[in-house]
Design brief:
binds ligand TXE; 2 domains; Aldehyde Dehydrogenase, Chain A, domain 1; 20% strand; seven-stranded mixed beta sheet; Aldehyde Dehydrogenase, Chain A, domain 2; alpha/beta
């Protein structure tokens, strides 16, 4: 294992039932540094046997001391965990930067967000309440919010810490036990987090982590009959498979499947304020953000002016290795580099309105030049597909109706923003645009621990983040007591 990685645990093992164990098949997977392409270690290749052991451990744990803890005590464990994460923010950031390739400051922001999720859900644990319901004479009726039981969490590689925080944090706050399958390209902070959870006092078996391939460990988790709820963040294709597998066991799923999120800029927008959001939301985390804004819709009257100003920002972007902590790092993997390069080639017929220079990069790193395309029609592949790289398209519109039509004209509906000083227009578009989050005169790519988040259309279903997530991780029981 590379000495640059400040690891205090062995990533070639799984954490099952509170113990670090080698995967049953004894397999490992290579670990690469995206900034250089160098092989820097091995991680566990968990398989169906390890998933089975983890589900059994979680099943045992949900009937153990965990079941008897009060909501406030569960909350306290999460608060302690948040404190431990805060104390290790720099280590976590370094691990994530090396593992995922994101600039150190972005990795640090993710670690801070992970701590914040623990705080938020720690504080929320004892504030989730049922209802009393007026019913017939002689009855008292109330509802109980109960945990599902064993929850499965399949996490992608783009924001491991944030996605673990939002899903595992809410699942633990509501009394579930968890089996977490992190992405094969980025599992280190998942293991670090689970180890810290143990140190924070989480009983053994309440949080189990099995790294491994999607088709092996992931598929075994989603089809396991002992799982009572699945939360998945990833691609549409895999999300469909996850939902199909869950259907066999009649298990609820939360799916967050990315997007093609627009920012709509009207002619009265404060461009000075908008510009950093317009560009950052496209290139942050090298564009590998589910809520990345990959489409900029602009009123035709300010199209050229906006293009010029965005293009200057693109030219100023600094791209480089994660540890150099510049504006943009490499993509996660050679596979992702190939996917994004394919899209860049599909844009060969388009005008490149802005492009960052790559300069002298480590030869084996997975870099692509952040690119802004103009002259794009709304039905072009680059305006329809989730590219998941630092690529944005600018599309002009003539009026509000056309802006809405283009904004809603993809399969997705995750996030959108509206830039205008016109209050009535802000309110109209907040209703008319199809997206799970609408920002007005700002854009929050990936942010907002407190803000319910999730998709419409093929962006998925169910809501994570905020207090709303707690409803998704519980099931409702109605108690009708007749007392005369
Ligand atoms: O995704 P996958 P990939 C999109 C993005 C990207 C594309 C491909 O467009 O270019 O997906 O990325 C696990 N059963 N997003 O191939 O396959 C896998 O191990 C159960 C958007 O990495 O969806 C990993 O842990 N699990 C997205 C997770 O699913 C399976 C973030 C995501 O992998 C599985 C990531 C299976 N059969 C990619 N196959 C977002 N919404 O932010 C794989 N997995």
């Amino acid at each position: 294992m590379s000495t640059d990685l400040p690891l205090w645990f062995d990533p070639s093992k799984c954490l099952i039932g509170g113990h670090w164990v080698a995967p049953a098949g004894g397999g490992t997977l290579p670990l690469y540094d995206p900034s250089t392409g160098a092989r820097i270690g091995e991680i566990a290749r968990g398989t169906a046997d390890d998933i089975d052991a983890a589900v059994q451990a979680a099943e045992t744990a949900r009937h153990g001391p965990w079941a008897r803890l009060s909501a406030a005590e569960r909350g306290r464990i999460l608060l302690r965990l948040g404190q431990l994460v805060t104390e290790r923010v720099d280590d976590l950031a370094r691990i994530e930067a090396l593992d995922v390739g994101k600039p150190l400051k972005q990795a640090r922001a993710d670690a801070v967000a992970l701590a914040r999720y623990c705080e938020f859900y720690g504080g929320a644990a004892d504030k989730l309440m049922g209802d009393t319901i007026p019913y017939l004479d002689g009855y008292t009726v109330y509802t109980l919010r109960e945990p599902h039981g064993v929850t499965g969490h399949i996490v992608p590689w783009n924001y491991p810490m944030q996605i673990i925080g939002r899903s595992v944090g809410a699942a633990l706050a509501t009394g579930n036990t968890c089996v977490l399958k992190p992405a094969e390209d980025a599992c280190l902070t998942a293991l670090a987090f689970a180890d810290m959870a143990k140190a924070a006092g989480l009983p053994d078996g309440v949080l189990n982590v099995v790294p491994g391939l999607g088709a092996e460990a992931g598929a075994a988790l989603t089809s396991h009959p002992g799982i009572h709820h699945i939360s998945f963040t990833g691609s549409v294709g895999t999300g469909v498979m996850v939902q199909q597998a869950a259907a066999q066991n009649v298990v609820p799923v939360t799916l967050e499947l990315g997007g093609k999120s627009p920012q709509i800029v009207f002619d009265d927008a404060d461009l000075e304020a908008a510009l950093p959001f317009l560009v950052n939301a496209g290139v942050q985390n090298c564009g590998q953000t589910c809520s990345a804004s990959s489409r900029i819709l602009v009123h035709r009257s300010i199209h050229d002016q906006l293009l010029e100003r965005m293009s200057a920002r693109y030219a100023a972007l600094r791209v480089g290795p994660a540890m150099d902590d510049l504006d943009v790092g490499p993509l996660i993997s050679a596979k992702q580099q190939e996917i994004v390069s394919g899209y860049l080639n599909q844009g060969a017929d388009l005008e490149i309105a802005g492009r960052a220079q790559l300069g002298d990069m480590p030869a084996g790193g997975y870099y692509v030049p952040p690119t802004l395309f103009s002259g794009v029609t709304a039905d072009h592949a680059l305006a329809q597909s989730e590219i998941f790289g630092p690529v944005q398209v600018v599309i002009p519109f003539d009026d509000e109706d056309q802006a809405v039509q283009i904004a809603n004209g993809t399969d997705y509906g995750l996030v959108a923003s509206v830039w205008t000083q016109n209050g009535a227009r802000q309110m109209r578009l907040a209703r008319r645009v199809r997206a799970g989050q609408i920002f007005i005169n700002n854009y929050g790519a990936g942010g907002g621990v407190e803000l319910p988040f999730g998709g419409m259309g093929k962006s998925g279903h169910g809501r994570e983040k905020g207090f709303e997530a707690l409803y998704g991780f519980t099931t409702l029981k109605t108690v009708a007591a007749f007392h005369g």
